[in-house]
């Protein structure tokens, strides 16, 4: 995934000079705020990036937003939540809050909107039972996102 993140982050970095923090920084900070237990995972990814940069003799880049959302949020938070029985309601509410904030950021950043659709919404709709579990906790923006994206999927989706 490094290749894609490097390309998208380079494009995002061009916007950063005019618009403020990179998408990676926004996603990283939001994950840290909503899921403090994931700080160690983020630190490990940052260390991996430094080691990789050293091995190819270049400055370390930020860990890409796609990597953060996939490896930290989806793999370490969302999938375990959706696999748990019973569902951890407090964590489900934090995930829903995180996704609302991410989609708010996405309303100003096509990069973040696309990343959220590809990495998170598609995870929910690709496995309808996942959306069924998270739906009661979902805010307005996530519900709208799911309504817009579900046309690309077959299956019974609760409204």
Folded structure, characterized:
The chain is mainly alpha-helical. It has one domain. The chain is 74% helix and 0% strand. It has 8 helices and no strands. The protein has helices at residues 2-19, 23-34, 39-55, 65-83, 89-106, 110-126, 128-134, 140-149.
Protein topology:
Blueprint: H1 2-19, H2 23-34, H3 39-55, H4 65-83, H5 89-106, H6 110-126, H7 128-134, H8 140-149
Helix pairs in contact: 2-4, 2-5, 4-6, 5-6, 5-8, 6-7, 6-8
Low-confidence stretches: 1-18
Global outline? globular
Compute the number of structural domains. Answer: 1
- Per DSSP E runs of 2 or more residues, the count of β-strands stands at 0
Treating each run of at least 4 consecutive H or I residues as one helix, how many helices? 8
* Derived structural class: mainly alpha
Helical content class: over 70%
Biggest beta-sheet profile: none
């Amino acid at each position: 995934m490094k290749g894609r993140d490097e390309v998208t982050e380079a494009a995002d970095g061009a916007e950063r000079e005019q618009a403020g923090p990179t998408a990676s920084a926004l996603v990283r900070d939001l994950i840290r705020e909503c899921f403090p237990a994931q700080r160690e995972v983020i630190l490990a990814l940052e260390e991996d990036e430094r080691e990789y940069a050293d091995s190819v003799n270049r400055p370390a880049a930020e860990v890409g937003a796609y990597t953060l959302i996939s490896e930290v949020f989806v793999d370490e938070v969302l999938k375990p939540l959706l696999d748990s029985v019973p569902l951890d309601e407090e964590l489900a509410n934090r995930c829903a809050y995180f996704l609302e904030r991410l989609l708010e950021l996405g309303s100003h950043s096509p990069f973040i909107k696309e990343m959220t659709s590809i990495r998170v919404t598609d995870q929910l709709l690709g496995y309808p039972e996942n959306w069924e579990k998270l739906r009661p906790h979902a805010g307005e923006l996530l519900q709208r996102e799911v309504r817009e994206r579900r046309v690309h999927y077959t299956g019974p989706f609760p409204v």
